[in-house]
Fold this protein.
Amino acid sequence: MSLHGLTKGTPFEKAAEMMALGEAKGTMMYYTLARLAKEQGLDDVAADFIESANQEAVHAGFYATLNGMIPQDFWGLVRGFMSAEVSGEKKVKAMADKFREAGLVAAADEMEVFAKQEGHHGVVLAKILEKHRPELLAAEGKKIYVCAVCGYEYVGDLDAEPDDFACPLCGQPKKVFKLKA
């Protein structure tokens, strides 16, 4: 039995949403604590914080599943994330260049690693789609809208989405999407 959407439209919906967002924020907090602990030479403490962060991420996914925050037929979302990850590589690299120009070399160096990881995520998602849903990679004859903020690609008729449609990756309203040329 799937837990997908179990709390959607119930008195538990708001609580599940708050839990998902709280756990996601907890993930960020624990990874930040781990980084700070590592900078202070506290590798054992950093490892404990990383374990907690990983668990918080699992919790966030659980509550998001309960609320149906990600569609059960997730393949279109995966296709959109693929393009956003590729776009993210360029955007993070550009930000790293600005950091470097400002003299923030250590941060820029790490951001360049992150940029490459973002691009790699796009490659991994493309391989997953190629194996399981290759038809989603073919875009001929389809309308593709791109989120101007994060690069997420929406395939289909964006006008058919409700007015409150938001980018599933960055939360921007549909008015920021532009038809891909």
In short: Residues 26 and 56 are 6 Å apart (CA to CA).
